[in-house]
């Protein structure tokens, strides 16, 4: 669901940029509460994995494909605030290096996928875990992913209804966006549940969703203690107390998956238009898109513009987002340390 330049008018694009900047800034502030050196490594690995799997379009209907948005997955692994930052970094690299998603539409894409997708996915995951009393964390994350995709699609439809550059029947736009993205959401759910289930199996105690599951399971027994713990940790993420070996296994699993997806499987991704592109063609606003300013760069369109093998482009992208995620989280960790030092000074 990468929105190109000029689908939305300038005032709408500017508004989404301001909202996204505020949301990402708040996420960075809140993420400091749960940061540890182990979570730095897990966040970097999660960011690399989300980037890699976003390269893999899968068919959802005749002539239409979808790809992972990744917000619900990132939230399940590292919590909502680090999840917002993780997906934001992916979108930033995609727009600036691979000409995927418009430059003026970057705020819109961050709002749709990094903010709405992540926070809605996390809220739905938590809701399911409360209903199941903490059972089925991987399945709950899958439900969160399933819900997040059509909600993000509905938000885009609302934005286009207000600030679209081409007049279209709003009812038809909403119907098309929701129907195709509901199917795409099924793929998102399967991928998310599978990956979370794998991490839970190979690295118990690492994923953020496990903290919520344990809180939900014990809430009826010791609600006051659970509420106290949840308020102190923000998301109840257990990574800080997980064995170092478990964190290493999770990072290895996600890193290996990212390399496999970006370098090998990316060559077999579906080439058909994704849900937004197919909707734009069907409803009649595809022609509003402007060419990306960086469309002629060697890595644009994941290497196609420069004749670079897609696996090489994918490897470069994974390396970039991992490095940026590590640098950002380390910087946040240091700022938290400085803030704590300043607080205890006489």
Count of alpha and pi helical runs: 12
Task: State the order of secondary-structure elements, H for helix, E for strand.
Answer: HHEEHHHHHHHHHH
Low-pLDDT residue spans: 222-234
- Fraction of residues in helices? 55-70%
Strand content: under 5%
Distance between the termini: 51 Å
Principal-axes shape call: globular
| Beta strand count | 2
**What is the chains' assembly state?**
single chain
Briefly note the structural class of the backbone: mainly alpha
Give the biggest beta sheet.
Answer: 2 strands, antiparallel
Order the strands across the largest sheet as they lie in space: 1-2
* Overall radius of gyration: 20 Å
Architecture overview:
The chain is mainly alpha-helical and 346 residues long. The chain has helices at residues 10-31, 37-54, 71-78, 80-97, 106-131, 137-163, 170-202, 208-218, 223-233, 244-264, 275-283, 310-344; strands spanning 58-61, 64-66. Strands 1-2 form a two-stranded antiparallel sheet. Strand 1 and strand 2 (64-66) form a beta hairpin. Residues 222-234 have low confidence and may be disordered.
């Amino acid at each position: 669901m990468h929105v190109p330049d000029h689908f939305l008018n300038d005032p709408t694009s500017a508004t989404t940029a301001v909202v996204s900047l505020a949301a990402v800034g708040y996420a960075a502030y809140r993420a400091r509460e749960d940061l540890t050196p182990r979570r730095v490594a897990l966040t970097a690995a999660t960011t690399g994995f989300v980037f890699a799997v976003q390269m893999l379009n899968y068919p959802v209907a005749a002539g239409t494909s979808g790809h992972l948005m990744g917000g619900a997955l990132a939230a399940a692994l590292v919590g909502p605030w680090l999840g917002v930052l993780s997906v934001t970094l992916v979108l930033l690299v995609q727009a600036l290096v691979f000409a995927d998603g418009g430059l003026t539409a970057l705020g819109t894409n961050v709002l749709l996928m990094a903010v709405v997708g992540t926070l809605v996915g996390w809220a739905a995951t938590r809701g399911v875990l409360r209903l199941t009393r903490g059972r089925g964390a991987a399945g709950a994350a899958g439900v969160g992913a399933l819900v997040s995709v059509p909600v993000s699609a509905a938000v885009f439809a609302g934005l286009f209804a207000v600030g679209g550059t081409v007049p279209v029947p709003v009812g038809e736009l909403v119907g098309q966006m929701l129907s195709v993205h509901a199917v795409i959401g099924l793929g998102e759910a399967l991928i998310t549940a599978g990956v979370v289930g794998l991490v839970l199996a190979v690295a118990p105690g690492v994923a953020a969703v496990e903290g919520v599951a344990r809180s939900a399971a014990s809430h009826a027994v010791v609600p006051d203690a659970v509420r106290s713990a949840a308020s102190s940790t923000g998301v109840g993420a257990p990574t800080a107390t997980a064995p170092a070996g478990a964190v290493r296994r999770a990072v290895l699993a996600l890193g290996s998956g990212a390399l496999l997806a970006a370098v090998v499987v990316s060559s077999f991704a579906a080439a058909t238009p994704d849900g937004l592109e197919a909707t734009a063609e069907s409803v009649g606003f595809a022609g509003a898109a402007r060419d990306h300013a960086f469309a002629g760069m060697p890595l644009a369109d994941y290497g196609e513009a420069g004749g670079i093998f897609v696996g090489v482009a994918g490897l470069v992208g994974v390396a970039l987002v991992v490095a940026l995620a590590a640098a950002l989280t380390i910087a946040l960790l240091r700022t938290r340390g400085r803030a704590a030092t300043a607080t205890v000074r006489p």
